[in-house]
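Hi U.,

Before I forget, here's the chain from the pilot set. I'm dumping it here mostly so it's searchable later in email.
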Amino acid sequence: MPGLVRRRRERNLTMRGDEFFEEIASRPPLTKLHPRVASFLKTYLAGEKVIPFGSLRVINTQFPPYPGRAFENLLDRFLGDDAGRLYSVTLAVTNRCRFRCWHCYNAGSSRKDLPLEVFRSLAAQLQARGAVAVTLTGGEPLLREDLEEICRCFDARSFITLGTTGEGLTPERARRLRESGVFAVGISLDSADAAEHNRLRGRKDAFRIALDALASAGAAGLYPYVVSVARREFLERRRFFDFLLHARDAGALEVHLLEPCPTGRIAGRSDVVLTPSERRRIVEYQLEVARRDDLPVLSTFAYLEGRDAFGCGAGLTYIYIDGSGELCPCNLVPLSFGNVSREPLGDILDRMGRCFVRPRPSCVGRTLAGCIDGGSLPLGPEASESICRDRLPARHALPRFYRIRQSRGPSAGNPELAEAYDRIHGEYDDFWLTGAGKPVRDLVGKLNLGGSETVFEAGCGSGFGTALLARKLNRGGRVVAADISEGMLDAARVRLAGHRIENVQFVHGDAVETLGGLRGLDVVFTSWVLGYVPLRPFFAGVAQALAPGGQLALIVHRENSPEREFGIFSSLVARNPLVLTRRVAFDFPRDGAHLESLVDEAGLAVVKVWKGSVRFRCAMAGEVLDHLLKSGAGTVFYDAIDPSVRDGLTREFLELLQKRNGRRKTFVVRHDYVACIAKRK
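Structure:
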């Protein structure tokens, strides 16, 4: 499978979503996913396909393009504990429109537009809340002459799509939108038959407008797709797949399928609501289309928001803001909890949060259909809260993704690290310090010590760096050396006793916790330990513990190092994430710039940053494995493997390592590192 994925990528072809997952999950940061979450995502993505778009890859318009900052923003919520925070926003920039669509959920809304200044403030608030996907819609958004200015209110943390009938999307306007940061344009298209589409959209020229707009979007470099409403007859198999072919031939890379909801112009019309079997048919269509390269992407809420996927995030992970500023849980739920032009976004979301606490396994719009009286919509905050309180169950099941996150199980931490180092402490010097000792000597040599300083060493290991530091403190200075491994501390005591070094106090404990009880330090020193110790908490502790002018000196592994060996292991895990029984996620810096930014963020002044590598030469693949397991944290990964598959996975690892090494007689394991000296300001 990895070879197939690689060949498809090289030929720039469509690939299955689970193949795409294997590709990206074999590299950081997705290597840090909990195995159960990773397994869910791989299974979910098997129902999607991923297409090339220029230098990017696209799952569909419900996900950011890859790679990019918005995609990284998405990954943050999978890796963190805040997956329930705001993800997607549909923002109507106007309620005005010249079409009369049969299903319009916005019918009867205020036609008064918000000024540009409101959107500038709102964009900043939305992005501060973590919004990844922002869809600008209406009404007809292209009626606003300042639409490009609104688009520029958002930076690359969010990806911007535009939902439009197509009216006004000239080639020049499309080019300006692309330059303003818009990624995709979704154009309403409900039929391959011009007369039928015109009737459904209430304009005799709607079909021509849509096709011209698709052409303009594609020519401007925008990702062109169509948005269609799933009427009952539209879902007949032959008709539906003929439409997909028509959309493809018109230039659409994706068909996004919506379900009609009895609100707006079709309020009270239960006859348009799809049955459970029809929604299941939509999912079946998506799964089929995902396996075919000859059709555009098919994206559906029936699949994305099913109870076995992410469920309905209305009012929580998803919100709708209409063209006059009324904030609702969803565009299909005309219940306003406040107006963004009159009060802060956070206050409105807090009010809404009393009713929307957890994602739901079924559509809120369908649940509340028939509960919202006609008249002036959306309803105000008091009435909206009352309806939600009375009609939405406070206790409900969670969608599968959130159930998995809630019960995802253990992660490797200090106990596992301590146990691993206790086990290998007797062999650590031979398998690690023989090659990794020189950068430690060099770092100690760069410290200008007078001899009377107090030095804290985080993660002293077997005492190699401890001894180097203690020898320089020959005028009454001392070292406080901490480690979580009793075995390593025993080895350090033996080393120092052999050198008759006595100005060292050993502490068994966590580095960050120990730092919390220290003040007025002259130096904090650490080598090859950070990453196993989380970076931000450590640097914050250093900033508090150092005296003014005190120094921080460190060497840390770069993320994903040793790259070849870590990549092989990660690719095997990405193929079946459940081979790991627990999450193993360490916190190494990506590079020197990343490390420098974290040190600076903590209020420390960077004096010097440099990078380097240490190399270990092994005669056989098995010796490489011994090096990885007996030099430290590799043992934690090994211990996390399900015992029932451990031997088989080990054989595969060694076979792939041998293959990657080719005809070379020696295996070279390269550990890349970043070193830094900083001072407290």
